[in-house]
Amino acid sequence: MTQTHVTSRGEVSIRDLSKSFSLNGRALKVLRNIDLDVASGQCIAIVGASGSGKTTLLRILAGLEAADSGDVLIDGAPIHGVGAERAVIFQEPRLLPWLTVMENVVFPLEIRKIAGDDSIKCAHRYLRLVGLTDFADAYPAQLSGGMAQRVGIARALAVQPELLLLDEPLGALDAMTKMTMQEELARIWAEEHVTMVLVTHDLEEAIYLADKVVILPRQKGSAIRTVEVDLPRPRDRSNPGFVSLRQSLLAEFGLH
Amino acid sequence: MAIVQSEQRDAYRRVQYEPSVSAALAGKTVKSLTRFGSRYGVLIAFLILWQIASRLGWLSPAVFPPLDAILTALWNGLAGGGLLDDIAISLQRAGIAFSAAVLVGIPLGLFMGQVKAVERSLDPILQLFRQTSALALYPVFILLLGLGEASKVFVIFWATLFPTLLATIGGVKQADPKLIEMARVYGASRLSIFRRVVLPGAVPSIFVGLRLSATTALLLLIAAEMIGANSGVGFQVMNAQYNFQIPLMFAAILLLAILGLGANYMLERLQGRLCRWNQLNR
Ligand SMILES: Nc1ncnc2c1ncn2[C@@H]1O[C@H](COP(=O)(O)OP(=O)(O)OP(=O)(O)O)[C@@H](O)[C@H]1O
Ligand SMILES: [Mg+2]
Known about the structure:
The complex is a heterodimer of chains A (about 260) and B (about 280). Chain A is an alpha/beta fold. In chain A, about 35% of the residues lie in helices and about 25% in strands.
């Protein structure tokens, strides 16, 4: 596999996207007229109250859910279902328990019929990236939660996606592991030049990782707000700019 | 901090044990002996008690012959070849029925578990069949297939089919939708999702069914041989009792127990091989 980093890869544009679910016979408007652009190689964070439709938006981007109306374009082309240029990291690791760590990372490559040697090499590379080379032969049941999630990350990266979709990937981890993993994600993002869309409810995580933070409104119908994060990388959580941005985002949610 | 503590503990242990290697070895032997004792102690005590009770006349030796008499009867039966023929015919009946049940039950179960409409429409009749005792149907099978081998094998097959079939359906149906979705994200087709996600996930459940089926096969084998046969280990139990050859009767019972243990052991080994990952979760 050759890795070329053409600049217009993983570019996302969402135009006038709406989605509703039917709940007990009533239509529940979840997303209304969303417009959003993500430049190639950018990392954006989507935050919002519980039930504001973050997961729904991400699932539409992944191709797991269809929008009612509007367009989702990736590199200028509308999406039809799932696609090889996208990978998803879920809140849970979703590892196949009967496969070893190595086999789990190779799994999507096998699905995509990438030759055995190449896939092993590739899997090794990403296991090293997440620091789990020593656990290649372990089974998921033998891993800690944080380690399992790292395997999930390695698996998603191994398919070398242009667009990486993350739905609260660190939500289930303890505070310490979480901070370590945030640093790791920042490093991986910088190394892999991948476009990332990160759903999170952790504002600090959003500011730590993202170029811009998108806030889904609580009241359906009001527009989404976008906040640019103009801080030097690697980010410093104690930087005054970081702290004040966090304060102002908290204020958006009526918290102080 | 926890790591440091456990490392300290390990170091402490090493210091404690290293001075005497032989003591460590003795400790190991004692440990494995205790493990053996705690596992088989009660069984051994039971056998010894049987032997003593029978020899000393606490139990009527006519009904509960001493173990050595039973083992002698077993040896004579095996050496004389009479019991060997019975074992062969019994194994053949149970084996054919069990194999047929597996060959029908697993594929059918996989299919029914995958296709909701089929499962929904077949489930009621399956439940009816399952709840109807196979032995109650034995006369029907005899009417249809005659008194020969066919009806015996069929009644065993019938009873053996359901545990495997239902466990397979269950295993397929409880496939984790989150894992399926993960596979979908990576572009897996319906077939690869089935092959790589649903099927491996169903294997432990299928094995539960297989072991239940094996037990059922032996149970029905014995019943069928007691009801209408003139050969087989089950027949020998009845026949020996009828002829008042009580040690031989117990020898045949012992054989049946050994057959059951053997079948279970083999399935357990196979399961251990195929589902190592599942044992880790316990
Ligand atoms: N498959 C579905 N059927 C019906 N309603 C759904 C479905 N999926 C989501 N919803 C509804 O859509 C709304 C948004 O859900 P979503 O999961 O996108 O929220 P979220 O922003 O990710 O919330 P959280 O922060 O709690 O994860 C919720 O009100 C939910 O009830
Ligand atoms: Mg969500």
